[in-house]
Amino acid sequence: MPQIAQLALVYQSQWFWLLLTLGAIYFFIGRGIVPKVEATVDDRDARIAADLAEAERLRAEADASEAAWRGRMNEAQAQGQTASVAAKSAADRAAEVRVAKADAEIATRTAAAAAALAAARTSALAEIEGVAADAARDIVARLAGATVTDAAARAAVAGAMSRA
Amino acid sequence: MAAAAKIDPMHQFQIAPIGSDSLVASPFQFTNSSLWMLIVFAAIMAFMWGGTKRQLVPGRWQAAVEGLTGFLDNITRQNIGAEGRKYLPWVFTAFVFILFANWIGAMPFGIVPGAHPFTVTSQFSVTGVMSIISFLIVLVVGFWKHGLHFFSLFVPKDTPFVLKLLIAPIEFVSFMVRPFSLGLRPFVAMFAGHILLEVFGNFVVQGLNAGSVMGYGISALCFVFVIGVNALELLVGGIQAYVFALLTALYINDAVNLH
């Protein structure tokens, strides 16, 4: 086993060159390159994390603006609805007022017409009574030769008409 | 025809001098082991270089490097906690060194004439030093943070006093065994795996050299087996690096977050 047979002869050079090599690896690579590589990886991880956070922030912002837009849309819709309801009720009220006015006018006109009709009727009735009394006086004068006064004839006619 | 070729599966673990004739007991002696350590370092450096482009959208190479560092960052963070990043450089160093040494040692560089592949992690003088470094980090961090209170690591909480008396020595022994088990594990895995590869690789060649039908049969069988062992070797190489990194993180956790 040369490892043991040669040990006394080679251990110094083995240790010297090993420590030299390990020292070079330790300082040049372990303390030189490895931290750089680690820093690169850390930078990348940090950057990815930052990018993700930024994307998340932007998404939240977009959500917020969409919600605000939706709110404004809802508000405008509600406003439009109340405006249309108000306009409709105002129009209804105006129409009612106009209808009421027209009704009142029609009523007064009807009343006037009815009054005129009643007056015409009473005057016509009075005229008929007068004509009937005259006719009755003529008939009495021709048939009986008697002269009846106008008042008596009118009374008789009124009595006959109230009986009829 | 070298029919009686001697199988020497240990030769691959032999450390040979480079640039001089014989080994000298000197720290500056450059050997094939030193050379392969530097090759491992160069390979790690080349691989990690691809991860320094720092692009926002990583390419394949950068993604692989980031995957490796992220994997080890996970190990330290899950086992040690938020403080784990302080210990990432060492856990990372140990992991990539063992991983690259294991895998480079399993590569068929022997095909290239004159190239002699060498698995650095098959030397316990290498894995032992690495486990001692991990153990020292645990000791230093533990005593630095908790002072003498660190010894309460050996005493389980909410246990009857009699049991504490029994358990504390066991805990202490198991704690002291840690550097040995930690260092021996990758060494033994590579050592045994490479002996298997060498032995069965030799059977392939000797079966062919025997020239008989049975020899060819044995050769083919061993070839299939060597392929399997090679795949297993790659798997074990990854697992051993992972186990070393994970256990180092767990042991450091003991020192950082004393129960």
Cα end-to-end separation of chain B: 66 Å
Task: List low-pLDDT spans of chain A.
Answer: none
- H/E series of chain B: HHHHHH
Question: Largest interface, by Cβ-Cβ below 8 angstroms: which chains and how many residues each?
Answer: A-B, 36 and 53 residues
Percent of residues of chain B in beta strands? under 5%
Number of domains of chain B: 1
Count of helical stretches of chain A = 3
Q: Compute the gyration radius of chain B: what is it?
A: 23 Å
Oligomer: heterodimer
The count of β-strands of chain B is 0
* Share of residues in strands of chain A: under 5%
Order of helices and strands of chain A: HHH
**Biggest sheet record of chain B:** none
Output the structural class of chain B: mainly alpha
Q: Helical percent range of chain B? A: 55-70%
Overall mean pLDDT of chain B stands at 90
Shape of chain B: globular
- Report, as a whole number of angstroms, the end-to-end distance of chain A: 168 Å
What are its keywords?
heterodimer, A: 164 residues, mainly alpha, 3 helices, B: 259 residues, 0% strand
